[in-house]
Amino acid sequence: MTSIELGRPAKIRRSARSTLTPVSGLGLGIAMLWFSLLVLIPLTAVMVTAVDGGWDTFWAAVTNAQTAAAIRLTVFTAVGVTLVNIVMGPIIAWVLVRDRFPGKAVLEILIDIPFALPTIVAGLVLLSLYGSDSPIGIDIVNQRPAVFVAFLFVTLPFIVRMVQPVLEELDRDVEEAAASLGASRFTTFRRVILPSLTPAIAAGAALSFARGVSEYGSLVLLSGNLPNKTEVTSVRILSSIENDQRASAAAVAAVLLVISLVVIVVLDIIQRRVARRG
Amino acid sequence: MSIEVAGVNKKFGDFVALENVNVTIPTGQLTALLGPSGGGKSTLLRIIAGLETADSGTISINGNDATRLPAQKRNVGFVFQHYAVFKHMTVAKNVAFGLEIRKRPKAEVAARVDELLKLVHLGQFAHRLPSQLSGGQRQRMALARALAVEPQVLLLDEPFGALDAKVRKELRDWLRRLHDEVHVTTVFVTHDQEEALEVADEIVVINEGRVEQVGSPDQLYDEPANNFVMGFLGEVTTLNGRLVRPHDVEVATSPRPEALTGTVSRVLRIGFEVRATVTTEAGDVTTVMTRTHARSLGLESGVQVWLSEAAGATTVPVEPTTTVG
Amino acid sequence: MARSTFGRKGPVAYLLRLLVIAYLFFLVAWPVSLVVTNTFDEGFVSISDLFADPDVVTALRLTLIAAVSAVVINTVFGVGISLLLVRYEFPGKRALSALIDLPLSVSPIVVGLALVLVYGGREGWLGPTLERVGIQVIFSTPGIVMATAFVALPLVIREVVPVLTEVGIEQEQAAESLGANAWQRFVRITLPSVKWAIVYGVVLSLARSLGEFGAVKVVSGNVLGETRTATLVVEEKYLNFDQQGAYATAFLLAMVSVACIVVVSLIRPKSHD
Q: Which GO terms describe its molecular function (chain B) (predicted)?
C-alpha cells in the first residue's frame, strides 16, 4: 500500500513573506497610491465625517424618522428581492445550462442587460411597462412595488452568473453515482447538486443584497421618492447632500458602507471555503 | 447466471456503439470487458447499470428482467473512471450515502461505513474531505461507497484509468484480493490487456460494438478466436501467412525443412530480451529471444537465419482484412 | 455523446423552461423592447432632434470622454493589480484583494459623497489645496472621471485574475530560460494569454462607465452644457416632460450597452480555448 499522501495544503497556505522585486514593488506603490486616492481615502472620509460630530449626532441622523423609514424600506426590499433571486437565480441558471431549445442564446443576453444598462435607463425601461402608459394596465409608479421591481431588475444577473459556471463544471458522473446508489432525481438534486451550488448561491445572494441596498439610478424616475413611502436610503443621502447637511449624509452613507463591508467579508469567507473543498 | 445481456443494440446518432450483443456474465466472478477505446465496452457497462438505455435487447440481473428498471432501482454498484466523489461530503458521508438513501438505522450505517473504510484501508481518513485524498485513495473510497449498499453486481468503468502506473498496479492487485474476500459479481472495463489478463477470471473482448470472444485469460491467449483477439492480447508478427507471437518464432543459423530464410536487419537489446527483425521475401518478421539465446546463435545484423514456428505455438491464419480502413 | 437516460426531459423541465422565459420576458425583454418602440413612435425624428441640440451633443461628448478615460485608467491599473495579486506575495494582499471588490457594492451616491468630502473645493480634505494649484476636481471633468473610474474599478481585475491564475507561471519560466527579459515575458507571453480576459473586462467597464449616473450626479454639479452627462440628460428630459427626448437618449445608451453585451457574448466562447 502506498504511504499516506496528504492532500494539497500548499494551495491554502499563504506566506506573509514578500516576494516583490524592486520593479513590482514600485508598481504596487503606484497602484496603492491611486487606489487610496480614489477609493480608500474618500471612503475613510465618509466614516470620519460620520462620527466627527460625536455618537449622538450620528445616532440622531440615522434614527431620524424619515431616514429610518428609508433604511427600513431599502433593507426589507433588498432582503425580499434577494429571496426571490435565491429561488429564481438557480432555476434560470439550470435552464440555461441543462435545457436546450431554440432562442436560448437570447436568454443569455437578456440576463446581462440589467448589468450593462445604465441604471437611469433601467428605470425608464421599467416605466414603459409598469408606468402610467402600461400596455398591460399595471401602474406601480410612486408605489412600493416599484422599488421591488427595480431591485429585481438590477439584481437579476448576480446569482445566475455565479451559479452557472459551477453547474457547468458539475460532473454528470456525480449525479450518475448518486442514481446508482439508489437516489431518486429529487434526492440527487437535494443532497448532491444543491450543496455544490450553495456557495455560489450564497455569494450571489450577498452581491444581490448589496446591490439592492445601494441602488439609486433605476428608482429616480420610477419610485417618485416619496418620504416615508418609496424613498430609499441612497435618495435620502442625496437630499442631505443637496441641502448641504454633510454630517447626516455621511452618517447614513456610513451605514450603507458597513453593509457593503460585511458583504465583502462574507464573500471572502465563502471563496476561502470553496478553495478548501477543491 | 448472474447478468444476462441478450440482443442489445445501441446507436448514438449514426454511430453504432453496440450491435446485437449477447453475453452471459457468471455469478461471483471477476469479469473484464476488454477492447480498444470507442469499441462500446463502456456503453455496455452503462447499459447494465441503467445509466444508458439500449435501443433494443434485454438485460437481466440474477434472473430478473432489469431492462426497464431505472439506475436507482437496480442495486448495482458503479465506480467511475474519474471517481465521481461527492466533494462537499466527508469520506465517511460519501460511503454512507447509499445506506442513508435506504433509510438504514444510524448505528447500522456507522458500523457498516467503519467496516468498509477498514476494508479499503481508509479508516483514518473518515472525516477528511475527498479533496484531501490522492487519486488512488479517492478511487478506493468510491469503491467502498459502491460496496456499501451490498450491490448484486459491482461495475467498474476504467477504474484505474486516471491513475499513474505504479498506483494502478497496486490497486489492480488489491482489487483481485478484495474480490477474493467479497465475492460480489464484478465487471470492469479496461483497454489494457495486461490488466485484464492479470486480474480477471473471465474476459469479454469487445471491438466495434461486437463481442469478439469470451473466455478465461488462458483460453483467450492460447486459443484466440480470430486475428483481432490474437493481436489485441499481445504482440504478433506474420510468418508463412499465419499470425504468431514473436517469442514463438524459432531462429536457426542453418537451413531447416519448411523454414523461411531471411537476413537479420536490426537487433535491439532491451534488458534480458533481444528483439531481432528479419527481412524475408514475404516481408519483415519480428522475433524475440533471451539475451543468452541470441548470444549462442551469434545473432547480429547481416547474418542469414531460418525461421519456423516453435512446437505448440499459438497461431492464427491471417484473414483478409475485414475491417474497413 | 448523448446520455439518453439523464437527458430525458420530464414535465418539470418544460415547466421550468416556461417559468424562466415568462419571468425574463416580463422583467427584461418586454420593457426593453418598449423603449425601442417608444423611441421610434415618430420615426427617426426624436433621434435626429437629439443631435440638433448642442447641449445634448456636449453631454454625449463628455460621457464618452469620461468613460474612455476611466476605462483606460482602470485597464492599466487593473492589469497591474492583477499581476501583483497573482504573481507576488506581500503583506496585506488578502485585504487588498477583498477591498478591490468594494466599489461593486457601494451605493453610487455614497461614492459621490466620498469624493466630494475629499476633493470638494470648499471643505474637502484635499480639494482646497488642489484648487490653489489650479486643479478643480468636483463640478468638473476630473471628478466625473474619478467617479466613473471608482464604480467600474473591479471589472477588469475580476476577469483577469482567474485567467492569470489558471495559466500559471510555467510558460513565463520557459520564456525566461530562453533568454526573455521581464518586459519581453510580459509582452510576448503573459499579455497574449490574458488578452481575451482584458477585452472582456474592458467591454464590461465601458458599458458600466457610459451608464454611470448616481455618482456622477453628485460630483458633476449637473451644469447644462458643461458637466451634464448623457444619463443626466435622460433624467432631466423626463422630468421636464420631454419624454421623446428621454426615450431617444435612453435608446442611444441602451444601444451601446446591448452592443457591448453582444460583443462580450461573441468573445466568450473563444476565451475558453
A: ABC-type quaternary ammonium compound transporting activity; ABC-type sulfate transporter activity; ATP binding; ATP hydrolysis activity
| Identity at A93, one-letter amino acid code | A
Amino acid at C169: I
Q: Work out the percent of chain C whose per-residue pLDDT is above 70.
A: 94
Chains A and B form CB pairs within 8 A to the count of 96
Domain termination residue (choose one: B171, B193, B228):
B228
Give me the residues paired with residue B308 across strands: B250
**C-alpha cell of A86?**
435565491
Q: How far is the C-alpha of C260 from the C-alpha of C53, rounded, in Å?
A: 26
Chain C within 8 Å of A19 (Cβ-Cβ)?
Answer: yes
Residues in chain C: 273
Does residue C7 sit within a domain?
no
B295/B160 same-domain check: no
Q: Across the beta sheet with B273-280, what order do the strands follow?
A: B249-252, B304-309, B260-270, B273-280, B283-290
- Closest CA relative to residue C104, chosen from C133, C84, C74, C131: C74
pLDDT tens per residue, range C10-58: 788 889 999 999 999 999 999 988 888 887 877 677 778 888 888 889 9
What's chain C's Rg over C-alpha atoms?
Answer: 23
Structural contact between residues B144 and B156, judged by C-beta atoms closer than 8 angstroms: no
Cβ–Cβ gap A246/C98 under 8 Å: no
The yes-or-no verdict on residue C129 having pLDDT over 90 is no
What proportion of chain A, given as a percentage, has pLDDT over 90? 41
B83, B138 in Cβ contact below 8 A?
yes
Query: What's the CA gap between A136 and C31, in Å, rounded?
Result: 11
The residue type of B38 is G
**Parent domain of B300:** 237-308
Question: Which set of grid coordinates corresponds to residue A12?
Answer: 491554502
Phi, psi angle pair for C128, to nearest 5° = -55, -40
User: Does B320 reside within a domain?
Assistant: no
A148 close to A245: Cβ distance less than 8 angstroms: no
B175 φ/ψ angles, rounded to the nearest 5 degrees: -60, -40
Question: Cell numbers 447494465 label which residue?
Answer: B48
Element (H, E) at B232: helix B227-233
Per the structure, the count of domains in chain C is: 1
Could you say which DSSP state residue A37 is in? Answer: I
If we measure between CA atoms, which residue out of B167, B136, B142, B7 comes closest to residue B87? Answer: B142
> How much of chain C is in helix, strand and coil states, percent to nearest 5?
80, 0, 20
Task: Provide, as residue numbers in chain B, all residues whose Cβ is less than 8 Å from the Cβ of A191.
Answer: 97
* B163 and B287 inside one domain: no
Residues B128 and B251 in one domain: no
pLDDT digits (tens, 9 = 90+) for B280-299: 988 899 999 999 999 998 88
Task: Please judge whether B149 and A192 are an interchain contact, meaning their C-beta atoms are less than 8 angstroms apart.
Answer: no
Of C153, C211, C218, the CB nearest to A39: C153
Mean pLDDT throughout A174-183? 90
Q: Which is nearest to C151 in space by CA: A200, A31, A43?
A: A43
Q: Quick one: cell of A237?
A: 443621502
**What pLDDT score was predicted for residue C267?**
74
Alpha-carbon distance A64 to A50, whole Å? 15
CA distance B167 to chain A (A): 8
- pLDDT, one tens digit per residue, over A210-230 is 999 999 999 988 888 888 889
Q: Coil, strand or helix: which one is B2?
A: coil
Cell reading at B235? 504482440
Residue B256 to residues B35, B249, B250, B261, B265, Cα–Cα distance (Å): 39, 13, 11, 9, 20
Q: How many residues does chain A have?
A: 278
**Picking from A12-21, B210-219, B239-248, C79-88, which range would have the lowest pLDDT averaged per residue?**
A12-21
Residue type, A34: W
Pairing of strands B76-79, B153-157: parallel
Of A5, A180, A184, the CB nearest to B134: A5
